[in-house]
Amino acid sequence: MKDQVLRRFFDEEFPIFIIVLVLFRYFVLIKTDQEPMEHEFDPDASIPFRTYIPQQIWDEYYFALGKFMHCYGRAEGSLSATIRVFVGDRVTPRHPDGYFVVDAVLSSFRLSAAQDTIKRLLRVTKARSEVQEAAQQILSKFSEIQFLRDKIAHYGATPDMRNKDRWFSTGTTMVNEYDKMELIYFKPQMLLDMADDLHLIPDLLNYVISYDPADTLTPDSPRAMVMVGDFGFWKSNSNELKREGPKHYKAKSVASVKAAKPAKK
User: What superkingdom does the record give (predicted)?
Assistant: First the structure.
């Protein structure tokens, strides 16, 4: 009797049980993971500002921050590698140990030093004007991204409680002089856009400094666009950042005064 019950279960009911379990896992567990929800209880539901930050918002920020910092570190490290290869390709043919010499002298650079070195190398090797201009634009985009990266790395970020638009703020609030205080506001999506641009920068820069006019590229590829001064493929835009604080307002006021002054005859 017991064997018959077990046989019937495995022959008739067990397959149905497995199907139900699979459907439950897909529609309940997987769907929930893909579409995280706010806390069921939101004490700020009836007001336009926040008194606490839901965990989902923190999770979105941490995910974006991790990808952003990862891509920044890799892009910064790639600049040093670009310099070593650029110099090594010109030294090695003259000396069998050329690459070892280059690595010993050019170990690593921080961003500002790497940028200056790359520009100087392009000048002294008499690179084509369009190559130097394209490299300048790529490095300028890197500098724009570095501005926000440095703020977050040194000061962290805090959710903006004044609204529910997922803005975070970072900047120099702990300063010795009040007029140097500045806050930068951004959204996690902006970090993801910058991460995508950082992913492109090393490849574009390496292509530009070894540019060959005979290369055939599809017109809408970033490599082709950068050589004709078209940078519409960038995802991030530093103008989307919001700025507040005495330092920002002072700079804005000075700029307005300069703009209002009549031109000298």
Answer: Bacteria
